[in-house]
Amino acid sequence: xxxxxxxxxxxxxxxxxxxxxxxxxxxxxxxxxxxxxxxxxxxxxxxxxxxxxxxxxxxxxxxxxxxxxxxxxxxxxxxxxxxxxxxxxxxxxxxxxxxxxxxxxxxxxxxxxxxxxxxxxxxxxxxxxxxxxxxxxxxxxxxxxxxxxxxxxxxxxxxxxxxxxxxxxxxxxxxxxxxxxxxxxxxxxxxxxxxxxxxxxxxxxxxxxxxxxxxxxxxxxxxxxxxxxxxxxxxxxxxxxxxxxxxxxxxxxxxxxxxxxxxxxxxxxxxxxxxxxxxxxxxxxxxxxxxxxxxxxxxxxxxxxxxxxxxxxxxxxxxxxxxxxxxxxxxxxxxxxxxxxxxxxxxxxxxxxxxxxxxxxxxxxxxxxxxxxxxxxxxxxxxxxxxxxxxxxxxxxxxxxxxxxxxxxxxxxxxxxxxxxxxxxxxxxxxxxxxxxxxxxxxxxxxxxxxxxxxxxxxxxxxxxxxxxxxxxxxxxxxxxxxxxxxxxxxxxxxxxxxxxxxxxxxxx
Length: 509
Prior knowledge:
By secondary structure, the chain is α/β, with parallel strands linked by helices. Helices cover 43% and strands 17% of the residues. It has helices spanning 12-25, 53-71, 95-105, 117-120, 124-136, 155-187, 210-224, 229-238, 251-256, 261-269, 312-331, 371-375, 387-403, 406-419, 424-442, 451-460; strands spanning 40-48, 76-85, 111-114, 140-143, 148-149, 199-202, 205-208, 277-279, 282-284, 290-292, 300-302, 344-346, 353-360, 363-370, 385-386, 461-467, 471-476, 481-485.
């Protein structure tokens, strides 16, 4: 059998016709790609205020409730259940809340569930700050009890109102507790939760601990013998004697020595070692900050509350000696040793900077740090400034003004033109500015700190404000102020200075 294949070339019209038929028969359709449905990452926050058994069961119920709630939604993913037993009057010292916020900043949470406003925060300012920070990251909160969802427009308004109610409730409870504590102070029924060094707490009573009591007597004896408190602390550290806080979590600090000069002085001045207690020396204000009682509340003193470790005559002689040493310290001319003393101010907490010394590679280096950071009264986050950085920043400013004295002349001209000679304060300000201009013009320049620069600083600088990002603001007595960078911070561009602020004469570099 022979199969014949038609290999003839089709005509052009037939080809076109065939193409037309195929084109007419085909239809084009646009299909939407199927998207993978993302699951919402949901976290829950639980909190109770105390360690009581009913509170422990409460937090367990909250955890189980939120776990079931998240599992019930197929489009939700459990991003973690965060729970803690701590007071909610402040956002500070709440590790689980901080860990939750850290996960939110890392974009690992999309939604937060919590039982009520009071569980999240009892301080209205802290609550609104937390909500707004989370909203700025696109993360919202659902408060179940109040039926508030911060994703809605009315959510934050209603939240602020209810948060104020919650804060007022806490304030009312706090006032009631304070009243009850004051009544217990007055009738002698108040029970202490801890005892000072030298005593142990047994059934609410202070009992002398013999080994610690020997240390207390040793401190008083050596102090009255004329030894300095720092030397006594060094001897106790060298002998391996631990303080009240030298427990396992303080092992690292105890190895390097836990006794300090301030610890010794606190024992010397503590009247508990003669059997007396003064109550209500500190109090908590309405913003939950602990402050020293300087007359706002009545001090209450308990006499012969417990057995004494030292006798009254020893204690009185120690107080007299401590007062004498304090007077000698006040009379020392140390405050006049450095030109920066009492002139360097923290721009964050408005406290003075103190001078300190640190050793680097065996050589001492002088630096300045905020007094709050030094004392520990508050946790100021301002960075330390080397004294050499302060000197170099002022020298840089002097060199700039030496080559651009026209800026000070413009400032003097503006003051003279606007006020004439009517106001005495303005005349004094003009005189200060002219004196500064004269000193700047006579400045010979240089990069080394010397007596001439120190004299100009002492005569013309009112204060130096330390600002974040290592920026120093030099305020002159005439009303001018200039800004300079220190360290590795980005340089502030040295642009032409233009007077700002009218009579204040604020000029900025």
